[in-house]
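User: Is it possible to get a 3D structure for a protein together with its bound compound? The compound here is (4S)-4,5-diaminopentanoic acid. I've pasted both below.
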Amino acid sequence: MQSKYLKYTMNIEKSKQLFEEAKKYIPGGVNSPVRAFKSVGGDPLFIKKGDGSKIYDVDGNEFIDYVGSWGPHIFGHNPSFIKNALLNAIENGTSFGAPTELEVKTAKLITELVPSVEMVRMVNSGTEATMSAVRAARGYTGKDKIIKFEGCYHGHADFFLIKAGSGALTLGIPTSPGVTKNNAADTLISDFNNIESVKNLIKANKNEIAAIIIEAIVGNMGVIKADDRFIKELRTLCDEEKIILIIDEVMTGFRVAKGGAQEVLGVKADLSTFGKIIGGGLPVGAFGGKKEIMEIIAPSGPVYQAGTLSGNPLAMSAGYAALSYIKDHPNLYNELEEKSAYLEEGIKENLKNLKRKFTLNRVGSMLTFFFTEEEVTDFNSAVKSDTRLYGKYFHEMLKREIYLPPAQFEAFFISTAHSKGDLDKTIESNFESLKAIF
Ligand code: HOZ
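Assistant: Yes, that's possible. Here is the predicted structure of the complex:
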């Protein structure tokens, strides 16, 4: 039977030309490695515009988008209330390097939405947020070492690029050249969902650990949720050992629930880090937490942290619009759950009909379809996925106008803009694509 969705004739000539040109001036032709399609093969598409659930490339092809700029677009692309907030803000100028009222309102709103956050500092990216949170923890505790988990990704600061996830994992450089031995020495690595491995490290480094940083719901080795018991024991361990627990909510904050992974798992961080949704699609990050710890940050305390564009008025207007919408529409998480569950069920039904047993992990509107039949609960089980097969699947979906993350160890993001029609087309395309790759 002729496929309903397959586009044999998709023209991507302009994207190809742009990529050749880009490679002359930008390393690898992209400004962030995962975008280059290296792990799925082929050339990246150059995107011209986004609207609702769709993106449009420079050749005029339309795709249902499940990347959503890697997480920020919880309402889909270019929602009118964010666009209007930006248009209003731009009337007054783009940057002052001085305090604004909107920063205060945004900070207050964040403390209302996330119970563990009493004070917050705005920065410009998730990387800045995580590296600054660690500096605050080190300054506060007077200790140097940190524990991170294998496969978790916290941005690209030197001391995080050790057994890291996301693009670093996908490209096979989880521990990056350029990170000095001394930098790496202060980062200890535990196994995700394995409390004994954390206990052993603490024992071997008694009174030396400033912080434990974790994606409590991981997005960067694909979606993996911390076990309830593991995360509760981790919290208790941190309290007993006077270690700062940093929950990295750059992906999960305002995404899996209003109060992020902490709300889903019923745990409170000492410090939390944010990005993506908090900026409404503009470059924003933030870190925040207990007042007592946050007051270590300059100018109230001695730990230096600064940024010319931090709290930028355009970024704050988009972020404030996004967070206000979330506050005023708590039901949006039910809508996201329904849509995401519908997609999950559809894919699972396809797998059943095709007699395949691949693993699907989903928390709210974040989902990863792992090409392994085993349960995925940590790094070792995640890397059992057949990434070559994911690449084939990715291209079959792309030919059917479905834009998925161009790497296995990432999340699909579902937005409120995804319609039932979009989800049905995705499910049917999933069936056809799976059939095509075997
Ligand atoms: N670090 C992002 C994925 N986890 C990718 C960012 C990008 O390439 O835009």
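Residues 32, 34-35, 70, 166-167, 220, 410 surround (4S)-4,5-diaminopentanoic acid (CB under 6 Å). Residues 332-353 form the longest helix (22 residues).
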